[in-house]
Specification:
By secondary structure, the chain is mainly α. It contains 34 helices and 27 strands. It has 7 domains: about 110 residues, no CATH class; about 110 residues, no CATH class; about 30 residues, no CATH class; about 70 residues, no CATH class; about 90 residues; about 110 residues, no CATH class; about 170 residues, Intergrase catalytic core (hpI Integrase, Chain A, Orthogonal Bundle).
């Protein structure tokens, strides 16, 4: 293969090219081992292409180990030597020729630790020596000529900070300065010099910091609560986020650094970070790179023209079709596509590779590396003496720690104590359950990420210090978003806050804002009466002390918006509700911009009943039965599939059968608790209404299984949930919308299936029995009975006659 062909392959199949070039030189390693090493060193697309291109131009670096070459090539040589390669040369120092196990780089050349150090003429003694540090002016000095600054850095910085924040704690400043550069005193001295030159770095101009350590020092002062210290914002996007990347003399965030690399693609014109460049050096965006015919090949498995990253003897294979060997998983025992575990060398399927469970040896929630599905074993218990594990300096538990310091669990506990503690350094008793629940979260990393998300740590810190009262009303003052709602759900699930009807509170807030935004005083008065004394009052009466559903909230909002639309139209016509006549109402009903016409009829009829309007007619539509076609055969076919198809999730099967057999809406199914399932020696019953219903054997088995194995999808504050179908928020059931989506994925049409089931039941049961059994209103049951043409008058007369013939003893 010519060099030009190799350069083309460096774009389409860089990993394969590197593997082949190494295999041509090295005979002690097989191709799979070489590919594994290459993938671990140069697995990324851009990095692998760069390595492949340099090896194609100069393959002799594999045998002589000499630069110039990218650092990734040197890392590849080192890793191949560690894997047992003998023909591959280690990288050598460009100055002294020493063989390297680790390397330093200047430009494209590799150096050892001695030759790689910077040499320059010392400003003090004039000798050319290795640069030990640089003085305040940035001039080089050797280690023999220290900079004589006898001042105490802590005293200097404390004096600067007291001019900004009088009364700043000296100990807090000293600790922050020490943690800025724990093992490098000269770095701390450079921080002091920079702050002396520009004290405004501490009050918002930190983006001009010459050293990254200054930004860390500002963050530490801010965390210590030193007043007057301002975290700098990114000078480009104005967000207060982590900024440490220099750009045009300023320090900006990672997002702005990425945007600074944007160039205009020569093909589509989009401004994006270039994925590659054409022969003339012009940028090409990732989308155009993927669509470039020169980079596409036909996959031999799916037949699609795509970019490929692997090849077989028969031809190229795209990433989607790249197969894994079908092996017997050593953990779950299934024959599935598996990868070999780096720890045990045994096959492990993708499901077991991502699964976390309680280890049967140590009992901790960890990633599973060995054992079986019923008796899983974590990594430290699988190979306690492996180099991957080391004891945590705090809890002494063996963990896979990637950096010095405590394990994630101990870090989480320390962070929680910092956030929730009050001024005395202790956690308030009311917040202790929250601390215990979060500290014992199964995934400490997830809990740490949640604490650093948005305003979570700020809100919890305010609650712990007492700056914000521990009440629902105090949380209502925060911006209404999902982060605040999740904080509230965690506090409620841990018992820190009492539970309340969030849907009703949300509706009351919506009513207040909508009424207050109306333009006329008369309209605000009418809307307030309609919303407060009719819609909300009726909703509270119907809910009977239970939480309202999202569907009820939506209906109430639609009725209120319909009233607003009608009042706005009347105002545009210089009319009021009292002065409106039937011709005016019909003119609005037939206009092109009318919205929520049927819902507005509810408001008009209320206004007539309250004598606010007169001489108006807006009749309600009578329900005459289901409007959709009902297919009873399809209903039973779906029910049989849910009863016997073990590949479906048990909870989805049970929910679908409750809809198909007992006409339960997703809102009613989602609010079932374990107390609704009653098990006796003879039967299993479910209480959907006032009278329990005995479940047939297959459905009963699914119900008991769901009671036994149900688990909340919430990662934080996971408690023993009473709900039969727990949801994603702590202590909350699955939402009606989510339940409906799961049933739709089973191929169930919700309205049609419920109508068919209710129609069939109405033909077999009296209305009173139907209402008490299914938990529906008696008027609804009567309407369905009439729609099904079921005449139960004879049944009632027969029951009455039997009572007379057989009087009670």
């Amino acid at each position: 293969m010519t060099t030009a062909d190799q350069l083309d392959r460096a774009v389409t199949d860089p990993i394969g090219l590197i593997t082949d070039l190494v295999a041509d030189v090295e005979n002690d390693l097989d191709s799979e081992t070489i590919r594994t090493v290459v993938t671990s060193v140069a697995g990324g697309r851009a990095k692998s292409r760069n390595v492949a291109k340099n090896l194609a131009i100069r393959p002799a670096v594999l045998t002589d180990g000499r630069s110039p070459a990218p650092r990734a090539v040197g890392d590849l040589l080192i890793e191949l030597r560690k894997a047992g390669a003998s023909a591959i040369a280690p990288p050598v120092c460009a100055e002294c020729g020493k063989k390297l196990r680790t390397l330093h780089r200047k430009g494209q050349d590799w150096y050892c630790s001695v030759c790689g150090q910077e040499r320059a003429e010392c400003t003090t003694c004039g000798n050319i020596r290795r640069v030990g540090f640089r003085d305040r002016k940035g001039l080089p000095r050797c280690s023999m000529c220290p900079d004589h600054d006898d001042r105490d850095p802590v005293t200097v910085v404390h004096e600067l900070i007291t001019t900004i924040a009088p009364g700043a704690d000296r100990d807090a400043v000293a600790e922050a300065l020490r943690r800025t550069a724990p093992h490098r005193p000269h770095y701390r001295q450079r921080v002091v010099w920079a702050l002396e030159d520009n004290p405004r770095l501490l009050t918002g101009e930190g983006h001009l910091a010459p050293q990254r350590a200054i930004l860390k020092f500002i963050d530490l002062l801010h965390e210590a609560g030193v007043a007057g210290i301002v975290r700098p914002a990114c000078p480009r996007c104005r967000r207060v986020v982590h900024i440490d990347k220099p750009l045009d003399g300023q320090r900006v965030c990672r997002n702005c650094i990425a945007k600074s690399r944007f160039e205009e693609c020569v093909r589509c014109g989009a401004r994006r970070e270039p994925a590659t460049r054409d022969a003339e050096g012009r940028p090409l965006c990732p989308s155009c790179l993927v669509r470039d015919p020169a980079n596409l090949e036909t996959c031999i498995v799916c037949g699609e023209s795509r970019m490929v990253n692997s090849r077989t003897a028969n031809g190229p294979i795209c990433p989607n079709c790249r197969p894994l060997p079908e092996l017997l998983c050593s953990i779950c025992g299934r024959t599935a596509p598996c990868m070999l575990s780096k720890l045990t060398g045994l096959p492990r399927c993708g499901g077991c590779d991502r699964r976390q469970a309680h280890c049967t040896v140590c009992g901790r929630m960890r990633g599973i590396h060995s054992g079986t599905a019923d008796a899983p074993i974590c990594g430290p218990c699988t190979t306690p003496d492996a180099e991957l594990w080391r004891p945590c300096p705090t809890c002494k538990q063996a963990e896979r720690l990637h950096a010095p310091g405590p394990c994630p669990r101990c870090t989480l506990k320390h962070r929680l104590h910092e956030i929730l503690s009050d001024g005395t350094g202790s956690i308030p008793p009311k917040l202790q359950p929250l601390h215990d629940a979060l500290a014992s979260a199964e995934r400490a990393g997830t809990a740490m990420r949640w604490l650093s998300k948005g305003i979570v740590s700020t809100v919890l810190s305010d609650l712990g210090s007492g700056r914000r009262p521990l009440t629902h009303e105090a949380l209502d003052e925060l911006p209404e978003d999902k982060v605040v709602e999740h904080i509230r759900s965690v506090l409620v699930a841990t018992g820190v806050l009492p539970s309340r009807d969030e849907q009703m509170v949300r509706l009351e807030r919506h009513v207040k804002n909508l009424v207050a935004s109306h333009t006329t005083a008369e309209g605000r008065k009418v809307l307030h009466r309609y919303a407060t004394w009719h819609l909300l009052r009726r909703l509270r009466r119907r809910s009977r002390g239970k939480e309202i559903t999202h569907y009820q909230l939506t209906v109430a909002r639609q009725h209120l918006r319909a009233a607003v639309y009608l009042l706005n139209w009347l105002e545009d016509q210089n009319l009021t509700l009292a002065a409106c006549r039937q011709t005016d109402l019909e003119r609005w009903m037939t206009s092109d911009d009318v919205r929520l016409r049927q819902e507005a009829g509810h408001f008009v009829r209320w206004a007539l009943a309250q004598k606010i309007a007169r001489d108006l007619s807006f009749p309600a539509e009578r329900w005459n039965g289901p409007s959709q076609a009902m297919d009873n055969e399809a209903r039973w076919a779906t029910a049989r599939r849910l009863l016997h198809d073990d590949t479906l999730k048990p909870e989805d099967r049970l929910a679908g059968l409750l809809l198909l057999l007992y006409a339960q809406w997703p809102a009613a199914i989602s609010r079932l608790t374990v107390d609704h399932i009653e098990e006796t020696d003879a039967a299993v019953r479910i209480r959907l209404g006032a009278v329990p219903v005995e479940l047939p054997a297959p459905v009963a088995e699914l119900a008991l299984q769901q009671v036994a194995v149900r688990h909340s999808h919430a990662v934080l504050a996971r408690t023993d949930s009473p709900w039969l179908f727990p949801g994603g928020q702590p202590g909350r059931p699955i939402s009606a919308w989510a339940m409906g989506e799961r049933l739709r994925k089973l191929g169930i049409r919700l309205a049609e299936a419920r109508s068919t089931a209710l129609f069939q039941l109405a033909t077999e049961l009296p209305a009173a029995v139907l209402a008490r059994t299914l938990g529906i209103d008696i008027t609804v049951a009567v309407k369905w009975q009439r729609a099904a043409a079921g005449d139960w008058a004879a049944y009632a007369a027969d029951v009455s006659q039997r009572t007379k013939e057989h009087p009670a003893p």
